[in-house]
Records
---
Amino acid sequence: MPETVSQNGGYMVAAYIITAVILVVYTIVLARRTRNKHY
Amino acid sequence: MTLAQRGRWTTITALVLLAGIYVRALRFTPVELHQGPAQKIFYLHVPSAWSAMLSMGLVGLASILFLLLKDARYDRFAAASAEVGTVFCCVMLTTGPLWARPIWGTWWTWDARLTLTLMLFFLFIGYQVLRGAVTDPGLRPRYSAVVGICGLILLPFIHLSVYLFRTLHPMPIVLKPSAPSLPGSMLVTLLLSFGVFTLLYVGFVMQRYALGEGAGDA
């Protein structure tokens, strides 16, 4: 009988979304700070 | 092209590559049989931990060089690396509990690895609070360099904590004396992710360093 894979994909999706949000938000923050410095 | 522009393009390139990592990890890397899909958090958690530790390592080295050479560029680099390291530490400290919950049955446990990693996060925060609190431009770099060196000293304890103490956290599977203990496709995804997170670190630091130039830093 084949082993069943755990159904915990929600945690994976949450981790991938949160990582993307943190990194993209920081990218935007840096871009805005750079723009504010120059103008 | 200015440093800030080069940093922005490096960051954008890294983010596009990160999207590629997402596709490879979620679509083309096999699901681990025992842990299920949650194991794929590994491809973000471990590289973000690497980038956080790289950040603090370079903060510490730049701090030593600043104290030895009194060159303000090292202090500016340390400040940039500390801020970027805080971001990667946030990724590590959010993805870790999200992986731990389904596998260990708890979001957090006060074992050596996790507690020392939390200390690393507090050091990053403390470093920046200190820089904001000390207004004397002569004292600020020196005080913050001491915190940066404390962070550098902490790093080997974090890495070795799984060997030195009983802990739920798994042993290193790549950065260890013997060969990596991962199937080939998983290892390739992990190594690619290491590369992308390192490139992200470089792009972020270039931009943040450029912000400090001519601004007396902060």
---
Amino acid sequence: MTATTTTPVEAPAPLRGIGRIRDEIERNKRLRIACLITLGIGALSMARVIADAPGLTAGTTFVSAIGLASPILLAGLGGLVSERSGIINIGLEGMMIMGTWFAGWAGYEYGPWWALFFGAFGGMLAGLLHAVATITFGIDQIVSGVAINLIAPGVARFLASEVFVGKADGSITQSPTMPHGIGHFTVPGLSDLFDRINKHEWFFISDVAGLLYGITTDVAYSTMLAWAMLPIFAYILWRTAFGLRLRSAGEKPSAADSLGVSVYRMRYLGVMISGALAGLGGAWLALDIRAYNQGQTAGRGFQGLAAMIFGNWRPGGLGLGAGLFAYAQAISLRTDANTAVLGLLLLAAFAFSVVALVLAIRRRIPPAIGLGVVGMASFYYYAITEQLSNQFVFITPYVVTLLVLAVASQRLRPPMAEGKPWFKGQSE
Amino acid sequence: MKLKGILLWLAAPVVAAVAAGVISSIALLLSGNSPADAYNAMWDYVSTADSVVVVINKAIPYYVAACAVAIGFKMNLFNIGVDGQYRLAALFAAAFGAAISAPAVIHVSLILLVAMLVGGGYAAIPGALRVTRGVNEVVSTIMLNFVATGITAYLLTRWRNPAVPLQAETKPLPASGRIPPLNGFLEHFGYHLPAGTLLSGFLPIAVLVGVAFYVIIYRTRFGFDLRNSGRNPDAARSSGVSPKAMILRTMILSGIVAGLAGMSPLLTEFFKYGDTFPTAIGFTGLAVALLGRNNPAGIGIAALVWAGIERAAQVLPQVGVPQEIGQIIQGTLLLSAVIAFEVVRRYRLQLLVRDAAAKTAAERTERTPMMPAVTT
């Protein structure tokens, strides 16, 4: 031991050329993210040009994708807050359903902003139920989540039969239409400019313009709120004392308890905030069509959960995951979906091949061969098909999440104490 | 002590039922209805002979799906993918059954075999992912449910029946591929079911599934290893059981049973897979498995209760009560049952510890009478 401490640390030899760039990228997180985004847009642009599918990066695609990402993002954030406090939340979907009902009701009674408020409130009620079951009674967190997903549609239907039936446009499956929707905002000037550049179909530049058009055009206030939540919760969870306490309850509750943190309180708050966020996601959906509609969540709570896991229980990755889901949805909603989907297949073929190559260089031969075969098969399928079904776009994000889990599951790091009931005074 | 044990065993379901009744009554009162009237109407309706047959028919797929879930639970595996597995299996079985022709018994057996293969095969994916890559099966099965939705929707466009262009559904099964109702069989014994009701011919197969579940899980070496791996993976490993192989086998077995869950509706009622085919049987199966405490007999009761509430609620609109109260009853019953089971389990554990402590204390005083008894 003493020998090693006295040995002076040798400074690493300065790197040159590609080695130096690689080193810099590995060290600098912001640079790495910028590189990834550039690469992503570049690949998308290439696929657009080769497959002749302008829909892939059309401004309108990004407009709808940025909107559609909101409920997934909110549900995923809900999952993040809950799981960081140590409670697995499979019940996001059910909490979201409660959000849609409450938002539908408040939206036509009091207006769109109250819809957001009551949507969050409805989700929070379901969150409270999950909290009581898992924290106070210590029942299995997945069981409780599954139960909430089973109960919520019934409760919403019952409430609809009591409140919406008999009103104009109202029925057991939907609320009356809200008299006012939530406002939309377009940045004057910039929006038109980006639209014009996007239409030129220049390599890379037009695609970036398409993305910027999506950010500056027709953005609902509810969408802005959803995206604002991402940095807000990243800040709360990682830069405030409350966030530290909440996360410590999810990592090592006994240690947190010994330092005076009330683990129960942190977990209750985590799960209730989680429900509120999922409910807000439900409210976004209700505001989108200005009504509550049975089944309108359509699995978005689970997508949020997937996005959160895809993002390794971190806000940035979660945002990326939500964007991926929403982008796939936006593509499949387009009228020219068939060509766009083919373009995506080409992109997937590229991605598989590149990842296979990287894995081969890193000498992880079996997964490299597996992915390589998948990549080749995708190229082949792209070459022989004229049309591709929407269903493939529908399943793409789920398959990608599965692949991420399969390839990187060893590097994922969920909160250490999540899933285990904890009681004060009990050893871990 | 014996009496106390029985009382404890009964306590959880009774408490759960009472809690569900009270909460549902509150919901009924808040909506301006009389709980007593509603419950009376439900009971009168569900206790007729017609209803009993319908309830049994409804309960069969729930029972099979719940068995599939419970097999996973027995070794702490959460197969949330039963839903995707049964839908995919039903589609393949329906398309296969309509495409081949064979003598009756063989035809049905082949369809069942295809369903089991597809269900087991699809469940092998999360099993393999868990074993080789450490992917949590809860997450992967949730993803695979959605993937199954996409695949079935796509395959339905390929395998649809051209004779009905407006419906996305497979060709109907020929008569040899259907299971006839049990009515004729029962009439042999002089037992006549009410006119207009058909008792599902899948009932014996469902019972067989339950028996097989019991025998495999509780009476074979495999089942013993499986339950041990679930309770104490480390102990199982040191007794020579490979946890990885057990996980994979359990998932596949669960998927095989899941594949059968859609067979009762397919072979006795719908005869084709399409948009009208019952959905979410897998999720109902999850609820029923939890309610039935994961054992074959308990699940049977739970499936009948669940289907019974569903049937009974159908009469409610006639007395001016929203039918959806049925779902409220089911939901509160499920949640309060799960909580009650857990509380009773923990209380029993406490009793056990206290008894053991008392016993050791007593033994000590016997051996060394000079020492004061240790009290806790």
